[in-house]
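Exercise 7b. Backbone tokens:
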């Protein structure tokens, strides 16, 4: 398992161009489409969604977001905030079962200055961590390898979600 997922450990900066600010929102674009696999959408709930990070910092890196395109915490209705956090908790449980990480970094980059790549649509990063993983950060240049790994992760996560019911 550790070997299978090793190609994932890559640097966003080294492999990906940051989207231009006027690009359409990739979360909304994915939600408007019906191919969740191609869009890496792992889960839709009435008010929230889960998208695999196309440029992961680590194995299993997910984004948990409200479905509505809102960029400020104050814009979220209580039900949206609650459901998004419930989904976040659920995804940690799913990743626990799939990957047994030693811990997580979970966080929200609020605004450009804080490093948000998509400042218009709130999304919480869920990054599984393993002891010693910072010692191993090779740059992956073969994009196909990354895409296959993302597809495999999508399959694992959605299968697990279906099992949970
Ligand atoms: Zn959006």
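Sequence design result:
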């Amino acid at each position: 398992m550790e070997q299978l997922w090793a190609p994932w450990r890559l640097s966003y900066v080294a492999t990906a161009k940051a989207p231009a600010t006027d690009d359409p929102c990739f979360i909304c674009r994915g939600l408007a489409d019906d191919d969740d696999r191609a869009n890496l959408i792992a889960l839709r709930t009435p008010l929230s969604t889960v998208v695999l990070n196309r440029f992961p910092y680590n194995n299993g890196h997910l984004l948990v977001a409200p479905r509505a395109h809102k960029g400020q915490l104050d814009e979220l209705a209580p039900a949206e905030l609650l459901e998004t956090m419930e989904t976040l908790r659920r995804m940690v449980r799913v990743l626990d079962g799939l990957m047994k990480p030693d811990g997580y970094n979970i966080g929200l980059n609020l605004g450009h200055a804080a490093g948000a790549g998509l400042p218009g649509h709130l999304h919480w990063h869920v990054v599984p961590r393993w002891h010693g993983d910072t010692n191993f950060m090779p740059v992956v240049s073969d994009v196909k390898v990354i895409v296959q790994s993302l597809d495999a992760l999508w399959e694992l996560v959605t299968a697990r979600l279906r099992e949970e019911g």
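Instructor comment: Residues 25, 27-28, 69, 121 surround zinc ion (CB under 6 Å). The beta strands are 41-44, 48-52, 62-66, 103-108, 124-129.
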